[in-house]
Design brief:
Length: 196
């Protein structure tokens, strides 16, 4: 389902389900991030839902908290992003120890050709969200650009990902999500800081 026309990267609050038909296969990314074959196989069959709460602190700094749930009894993760481009450490049960940072960027500020492809000026006039993560223990870095793309003539929440492994191998993937409605008022919110 398409994202609401009024939704921009200034507030991406809502519930989204990963559309595996429209998305690129991302198993190779998980493999290079050190995720086990068993867990990757389970993730491949699971329905992945993002419950996103996008708000501002009293100081006016944007925060995005994403509670990710998966079917099949797989424990999800909580992503907490503060959009101030400050590095923060986090321990994740899927990805291990990660250092990350996030911020708003304009399309013209995105340097990587793959990461800046596919966005339209109309759908990213409020900018995009850039997330960078580093795992020293698994020797990878991941840069993500989040925003809205037109897919099959519908506005969709999307993430473009560039993963680099051991400083040489580069893998690009695009994830497309279906909007299923507002975030439930009882959605879990935490203050964990990850920026992975």
């Amino acid at each position: 389902m398409a994202a609401p026309q009024e939704m921009t990267t200034l507030d991406i609050s809502g519930q989204f389900i990963l559309n595996k038909t429209l998305s690129d296969d991302y198993d190779i990314i998980l493999k290079n991030q050190g995720v086990s074959w068993f867990l990757r196989t389970a993730i491949a069959y699971a329905t992945i839902t993002l419950n996103i709460k996008h708000s501002k602190t009293d100081e006016g700094v944007e925060q995005i908290i994403i509670d990710q749930t998966m079917t099949g009894g797989i424990k999800g993760t909580t992503e907490s992003r503060t959009l101030d481009w400050t590095e923060r450490s986090h321990r994740d049960h899927i990805f291990g120890n990660v250092v990350g940072k996030s911020r708003h960027v304009q399309l013209g500020e995105v340097e990587d050709e793959y990461l800046k492809t596919g966005w339209t000026e109309e759908l990213c006039k409020e900018g995009l969200i850039e997330s960078y993560a580093l795992s020293e223990e698994n020797a990878w870095t991941a840069t993500q650009i989040w925003g809205f793309e037109e897919v099959n003539e519908e506005k969709r929440y999307a993430r473009r990902i560039r993963l680099e492994k051991d400083g040489v191998e580069r893998i690009n993937r695009r994830l497309i999500y279906d909007y299923i409605g507002p975030t439930p008022s009882d959605a879990t919110t935490t203050t964990t800081t990850t920026d992975e």
